[in-house]
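Ops channel
N.P.: pipeline sanity check, posting one input/output pair.
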């Protein structure tokens, strides 16, 4: 997480104060990668070993080699996610190859949700989803600490109401 100026404050040159995602999201995604890799490797090696021959079971190692490459890609993707609270809007930035930056004006927000599935709860994470009038501009910030997600929800709701939003 980046530090420096307080939340919502602008730094020199009108650069927003960006906040990164906590490392729990990266740990959760890496665990899912390992679990799915093991399932895929066993699901590939077992039938090949039983039906074609033991030498063919070595193809079960292919998913394991792909996992090595994906391990680093997950970290790059995690590092690309960040958000910034500005005076009139919320910025959400993400993407490694295709960089995407979403600007959600506080006055356009209709609903702010905090969600947390079973796996997210196990890792102590929650997501904030912002709904606007246009479905294409809905935005999500995944993998936040639940306390930060609730603080962000309350702040965004308060700012949306102050700007005559439909919250």
């Amino acid at each position: 997480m980046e530090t420096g100026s307080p939340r919502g404050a602008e730094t020199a040159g009108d650069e927003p104060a960006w906040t990164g995602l906590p490392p729990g999201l990266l740990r959760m995604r890496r665990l899912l990668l390992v679990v799915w890799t093991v399932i895929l490797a066993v699901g590939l090696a077992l039938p090949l070993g039983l039906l074609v021959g033991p030498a063919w079971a070595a193809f079960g190692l292919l998913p394991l080699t792909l996992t090595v490459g994906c391990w680093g890609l997950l970290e790059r993707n995690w590092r690309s996610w960040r958000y910034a609270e500005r005076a009139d809007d919320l910025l959400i930035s993400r993407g490694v190859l295709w960089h995407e930056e979403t600007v959600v004006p506080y006055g356009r927000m209709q609903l702010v949700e905090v969600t947390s599935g079973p796996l997210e709860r196990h890792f102590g994470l929650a997501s904030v989803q912002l709904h606007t009038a246009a479905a294409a501009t809905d935005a999500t910030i995944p993998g936040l600490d639940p306390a930060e997600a609730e603080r962000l929800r309350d702040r965004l709701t308060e700012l949306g109401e102050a700007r005559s939003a439909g919250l």
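N.P.: looks fine end to end. The beta strands are 19-20, 82-85, 89-94, 100-105, 109-115, 126-132, 139-144.
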